[in-house]
Amino acid sequence: MLRFATPIFFMIVGFIYLIATLNLPKARLGDPNGPMYFPIIIAVLIIVSSAVYFFQEWKLRKEEFKEFQLIKEGRAPLYLIATIVLMLIYTFLFERIGFLYATMLFLGGLMFLLNGRKRWIYNIIIAVAFSFITWYAFAELLQVSLP
């Protein structure tokens, strides 16, 4: 039964996302349903891919399921908990200090967690470069307002 937890979880997430998307306010300019198209596509893709994943797991239901055992081994529980904590901190900081600085801190923390301190210059370069390129692409090129 544990084998089906992930596809069922993401199928529920897809339906919640779809319902939330359908409740978005209508646009005042242009196509009134315009803001809904991309999120609906994403929600449908999540639901369809979860259904495909569910049926793939259904075919393997008589075989032993070992995937969740890997989470309990080694440093995986530490990485999992630390990543969740970093995401919560990122969520808290996002509105307060903005996308660019919050993303740099989040990616930097995640890179240091996964790569360690030995590759500190690599971690900093990736965190700063990715954050800046992403910010530039959305804020300047696509004219998307970021906090």
Textual characterization of the structure:
With 147 residues, the chain is mostly helical. The protein has two domains: 1-72; 74-140, no CATH class. The chain has helices spanning 5-22, 34-59, 76-97, 99-115, 120-141. It is flat, with a radius of gyration of 20 Å. The mean pLDDT is 90.
What is this structure's SSE topology?
Elements: H1 5-22, H2 34-59, H3 76-97, H4 99-115, H5 120-141
Helix pairs in contact: 1-2, 3-4, 4-5
Brief overview:
By secondary structure, this protein is mostly helical.
List keywords for this structure.
mainly alpha, 2 domains, transmembrane, flat, membrane
Would you tell me the structural class of the helices and strands?
mainly alpha
Percent in helix:
over 70%
Beta-strand content bin:
under 5%
Number of helices: 5
Round the Cα radius of gyration to an integer and report it: 20 Å
Silhouette: flat
Query: N-to-C SSE series?
Result: HHHHH
Number of strands: 0
Q: Write down the overall mean pLDDT.
A: 90
Total number of distinct structural domains:
2
The biggest beta sheet reads: none
Low-confidence stretches: none
Distance between the termini: 42 Å
